[in-house]
Amino acid sequence: MIVAGSAVHADLDVQADIAVVGSGAGGAVFAKLLTDAGHRVVVLEEGGYYTSADFTQDERDMYPRLYKDRGTQATADQAIGILQGRCVGGSTVVNYLDCFRSPPRLLAEWREVAGLGALTEERMAGFFEAVEEVLSVRQIGVEQLNANNAKLWIAAQRLGWKGDTFHRNALGCIGSGYCGLGCAYDAKQSMALTYIPLASNGGALIHANARVRRILFEGDRAVGLEGDVLDPDTDLPRHRLRVRAKLVVVACGSINTPVLLLASGARDPSGQIGRNLHVHPAFPVIGEYDEEVRAHEGIKQGYYIGEFSGVLHGHPDDLLIEGIGAPPGLSAPLFPGTGDAHMDWLARRDRIASAIVLLRDAGSGRVTVRDDGRPTIRYRLDEERDVPRAKRGIENLIRAFLAAGARRVFGPTVDEVQARHPGDAAAIHERSFAPNRVIVFSAHQMSTCRMGADEAAYPVDPEGRLRAYRNVVVCDASIFPSASGVNPQMTVYGLASHVADMVRSEPRRYGL
Amino acid sequence: MSGNRSPDPVPAGTPHADRPPWPSRRRLLRLGVLAAGGLLATTAVPLIRSGPFPPPRRPLVHLDPRRAGIVRALGLFVIGHDHVRVPVDEVVDATLGALHESDRKLWLATLEILEAGTFAMALHLRPMSELAYEEGVAYLDSWGRSASATRRAMHMAIRKTVIASWYMDPRAWPVLGYEGPWVARFPVPTVPLRFPLRDPVRR
Fold first, then answer.
1. What is the residue-averaged pLDDT of chain B?
2. Which of A156, A277, A345, B36 has the most CB atoms at less than 10 Å from its CB?
3. Rounded to 5 degrees, what are φ and ψ at B7?
4. What CATH number should be reported for the domain whose range is A2-136+188-273+447-506?
5. Which region holds residue A71: left if phi is over 0, alpha if psi is between -120 and 50, else beta?
6. Is residue B14 part of a domain?
């Protein structure tokens, strides 16, 4: 059963075997698998519950409903917009459906560096197959690419670069192009359409508009949770929420998981909770063509160039180039210029292709908690390890757009880089990437509660438990030992399945 | 792949490890209120700009008349001369309503600093809302290209809010050749998958 905050009319006391905080990629998969194993599971989601009937495709309605901080979340210096879902289903409701299994190189690195020996390709493959079946994950064909993504495909053919169409978790996608505002056609197989209803059918109780403020600890155990039931319209507390559970699963995403743990005063022998934040910085590049592109229509992310990926192909730059489009409110601030010059660009929007350089960041930032319980996100691009690679990626993306016939291409820096010939692209190396001198955003946050064997470096042990407690499991992208280097949703599903499998195998070790 | 790719940039236990390398929002807010108050107190220039601005269709909640005037001038500088399609103060006011209170206060303080900053930072004898179009664009660009990270951050916060608020409004869409949401134009029946009866991988 899914219970919205509006349906709760008194303070709420809930008892369960397992309390899962967060209903996104990690929480939903964990909840379903443990419900199947016969446990009483309650899922607590701060955001609201919305269905296709609510998805108006109007940015003014959807950002406040579906995104953390109404879509305005950013780093403390405003330099990097941090996009994060906040609703039943979490970011899987608003993502662009890209499904990469964790690449073998990534798993090998995590086994070697983080000591996660259990993450073998064979074991993870079983989890991925199960998830892909539920989510109807299929690779799209080249014929399904919109004109925007086709530019990258053409470029890859002409330049001899490795690339491929995306695998996507969609069923009957009509290519409306509104993936980021919730799928109004129930084509996107988000958690809200798959694992959450499956968990609910199995007996799990899902509370929407339920904000957990702190975990209650007694010695080396968590005994429950405290929070509020929120008014779905105002987000203001309506009733008190108390949950008693034998096992607490924290799956609020890489920003809010450390916030909840820090606000709860969780012991952290490693001192690493909230640190090591990776964001996969995404640098947008736009190219102007003579013909119509209409990047905002069709399958927005259909093709990627993997030539420069380390985790896919061993390239030292370790980045992906991905086609992308966005609705007007999200995309307009990314265009260069001020005043009439800015509007001139937007007036040509139909002929403009857009793509991003998605960098596997080696540098990292930090999440801390403020007095009011909200996160402060600090992150700066690493000048030594990341900026040079990002610049090479942007240079290559500019070359790609030109190879596909662009009349001119613009880089993402405030001090403009305009390229009409491949040789012009090198100008990007002269530009500053200091905060707010380069346009950059993040849709992937990771690694703020890393999982690994070394207790001095990793707050979460290889069995998924917060190190200082017997019965607190962390189960989202925050446990990634490092940035995944590919769009992370499948890796979250895989790790959630892995941790859930360990809990199912030996429930007593987790307090059940 | 070799080595740990994500070392901690601020080792635990480092003195002042909790202190951000740039001003916190609270410090920015304090700085903003102080700077704006001081500068405004020394001027008696009427700040409510009149001109060919479309009136908002609903009462403003978070922008008082003076600040609404500043925002309308910002609209001209940031959006361009076609800004009259959509009342900038109306759409920005709605966006401010969706922000957390502390973020809203910070945004308004930043607005005040931008307004008053013309005196000290651009040597104009008028506040920003009194500048001509070319002057206003140059003034805003000077913030966006400033050597000061704080000024660039303030510029980014203001620019993003004004542009996103304006272009989200249907009245702006003709500029983009954008016809609006598909659901309003092409109704497609949805598949009732919300509670599937069969679990393909139940074990």
1. 77
2. A277
3. -70, 155
4. 3.50.50.60
5. left
6. no
